[in-house]
Amino acid sequence: MASEVLLAVVSSRGSVWTKELLKHVPDAQVWPDRVTDLDAVKFMIVMKQPEGLLEKCPNLVAVNGLGHGVDYITKEEGKLKPDVQILRVVDTLMAERMAYWNLWAIINCQRRCEEYLQAQRAHRWSHGEVEDLSSEDNADFRVGILGFGALGGELASVLRKNGYPVSAWARSKRDVEGVAFFAGKEQLPAFLKDLRVLVGLLPLTPETTGLVDKDLLAMLPRGAFFINAGRGQSHKTADLLEALDSDQLAGAVLDVFEEEPLAKDSPLWDHPKVRVFPHVSSWTPIAPGVQQTLENWEAIRQGRAVAPERVVKRHLGY
Asked: Which molecular function terms from Gene Ontology are attached (predicted)?
């Protein structure tokens, strides 16, 4: 009898995930080499699964992504039956890693570390040249978080502990202690106008695709910085380059891109104001990711509700 579980983990660490999952569900079907009956599949465990695979499983009950962002599932949401649950991994360590990577990137911008690096490569002692030795205090360096889910909340907490004023923007308004909160597109200008650095942590939805464009970047104070660790398709690369070249932006730190891997001929690689990272600001730790996924499957088998923070709101896409 074919297993009710199908693994389709097609990513750079797919073999590692699959090996670990098979220790717990050894009879699982595995795409593409160990598939016997897609009609039997009720629970899919995926990361960047082949397009069209979801709809080939007519008895699917839930599909579990192995990360916090699951846009590779939600982009096919319309092909799923209305009662199919989309699940994700929510991990504290993943959020902490993301927060501290962003804190590093913010300090990198605040202290103009890229310019010091360029001076080092030129063998130039740049004391007093890059900064005038009265650099902005944390209290004067307002950070704006664009997208405020679990990752944005953790970053806000870390920033406040380090004395940074924090603003946040999301689809809907909420009350967060110590955070100036803005919601909806009509409040974007007010959110952006006082920022020294904008941090993108958006999920990928039709509404957020291309949101960071020339119009949005023009609303920032001249000389602000941009960091993106959310989804690369949320920013328009051409508009970002234009803002950098015109000095509207003083610099950018990018961990995500419109297309990944970043093309070898992309102008971002060699741009003097850009630091490129290969989508490594954080990742899902395998052990807790496997544990949560197995807990989700067990809850479904027993007819219990999955922990609500792991359930994606299909109508929102996150």
From this structure: NAD binding; oxidoreductase activity
Centre a 10 Å sphere on the Cβ of residue 216 and count the other Cβ atoms it contains.
22
- Is 60:44 a contact under the CB 8 Å cutoff? yes
Distances (CA, A) of 35 to 32, 41, 116: 6, 10, 54
Amino acid in the structure at residue 301: R
User: In this structure, what are the phi and psi dihedrals at residue 11, rounded to the nearest 5 degrees?
Assistant: -150, 180
Out of 68, 97, 231, 310, the active site residue is 231
pLDDT surpasses 80 at 134: no
Cα 192 from Cα 212, distance rounded (Å): 11
The label of the residue with tokens 């949560």 reads 292
Note the pLDDT of residue 13: 87
With left for phi above 0 and alpha for psi between -120 and 50, is residue 254 left, alpha or beta? beta
231 in catalytic set:
yes
Residue (of 179, 159, 178, 161) closest to 170 by Cα position: 179
Instruction: Kindly list the distances between the CA atom of residue 53 and the CA atoms of 27, 38, 113, 205, 314, in Å, as whole numbers in the listed order.
Output: 19, 9, 45, 21, 18
Exactly one of 13, 111, 160, 279 is catalytic; which is it?
279
The first and second tokens of residue 294, run together, are 């197995």
Name the pTM for this structure: 0.93
Q: Which two tokens stand for residue 306?
A: 């999955």
Is 279 one of the catalytic residues? yes
d(CA 169, CA 174): 10
- Give the C-alpha distances (Å, rounded to integers) separating 241 from 61, 108, 232, 235, 257: 44, 19, 14, 11, 13
Mean pLDDT value of segment 225-241:
99
